[in-house]
Amino acid sequence: MTTTTAPVAIIMGSRSDWPTMKHAADALDRLGVAWDARVISAHRTPARLFDFATTARATGYKVIIAGAGGAAHLPGMAASMTPLPVLGVPVQSKALKGLDSLLSIVQMPGGVPVATLAIGEAGAKNAGILAAQILALSDEGLAGRLEAFLEAQTEAVHETVED
Ligand code: RP5
């Protein structure tokens, strides 16, 4: 069986989602959290999704970030096949600007949760931070790095409109 040392899996429906999902990877890099990224489509590669989701926990993953656009079934289908927390990122679509992605991901039936983030880059970045926050519950070193990250973010916001 394949195993990983990376606690976070970033999966996405298409290579075209990577410019968005890279923001999750960047946030994890900044916080010193390892990740693996894979293209897994709920519609085009359903067998790959089944194999990934049903073995994700045994593989060693702790959190899954799943991004998709349009009829975005990837996060929900992944959540239906794993006990791991799934963070869903609605990728901005061309036709409906991601509103379709958002509604596809957020309206899960009771009992199968997907923690749904904002549409696009902000959602991907926040998914990375949220994954780190979940992992930090049992990792003091990471908790310290997160605190420093949040403090630096606050300090970077100037109260005046001019220098
Ligand atoms: C979804 O369809 C993907 O997640 C992507 O956001 C969208 C378009 O995919 P491509 O046609 O660019 O491969 O499955």
From TrEMBL:
Residues 6-157 form the PurE domain. Its EC number is 5.4.99.18. Pathway: Purine metabolism; IMP biosynthesis via de novo pathway; 5-amino-1-(5-phospho-D-ribosyl)imidazole-4-carboxylate from 5-amino-1-(5-phospho-D-ribosyl)imidazole (N5-CAIR route): step 2/2. Keywords: Isomerase, Lyase, Purine biosynthesis. The keyword Transmembrane helix does not apply. SUPFAM superfamilies: N5-CAIR mutase (phosphoribosylaminoimidazole carboxylase, PurE). GO terms for molecular function: 5-(carboxyamino)imidazole ribonucleotide mutase activity; lyase activity. GO terms for biological process: 'de novo' IMP biosynthetic process. Substrate binds at S14, D17, R44. InterPro entries: PurE_ClassI, PurE_dom, PurE_prokaryotes. It is an enzyme of class 5 (isomerase). It catalyses: 5-carboxyamino-1-(5-phospho-D-ribosyl)imidazole + H(+) = 5-amino-1-(5-phospho-D-ribosyl)imidazole-4-carboxylate. Catalyzes the conversion of N5-carboxyaminoimidazole ribonucleotide (N5-CAIR) to 4-carboxy-5-aminoimidazole ribonucleotide (CAIR). HAMAP family: PurE_classI. Belongs to the AIR carboxylase family. Class I subfamily. This is N5-carboxyaminoimidazole ribonucleotide mutase. It comes from Brevundimonas subvibrioides (strain ATCC 15264 / DSM 4735 / LMG 14903 / NBRC 16000 / CB 81). The gene is purE.
